[in-house]
Design brief:
about 80 residues; mainly beta; 5-stranded antiparallel β-sheet
Length: about 80
């Protein structure tokens, strides 16, 4: 079974928004593709793992499906 890069994300990890999510939403320019943040906590909802992320330079936290995030140290392994 192939593991997903998001399976390795833990609280405290530095993350970016995954390339596949940015492509699927057409968000390839602007500030959002360059956001970096820190995972503060996880919640489970409907069998999905939701990460609360504090983005650098952004007020408050936001919730993201963990499969739409990638650890900064794993960027080189992300599908293009």
């Amino acid at each position: 079974m192939k593991t997903h890069l998001s399976d390795n994300i833990l609280e405290g990890d530095r993350v970016k928004i995954a390339r596949h999510f940015l492509k699927s939403t057409g968000c390839l320019t602007g500030d959002i593709p360059f956001w970096t943040g820190t995972v503060r906590a996880f919640a489970f909802f409907g069998g999905q793992r939701i990460a609360n992320v504090q983005w650098d330079g952004q007020p408050g936290e936001s919730s993201w499906l963990s499969t739409n995030l990638v650890r900064i140290q794993d960027l080189q392994f992300e599908d293009r």
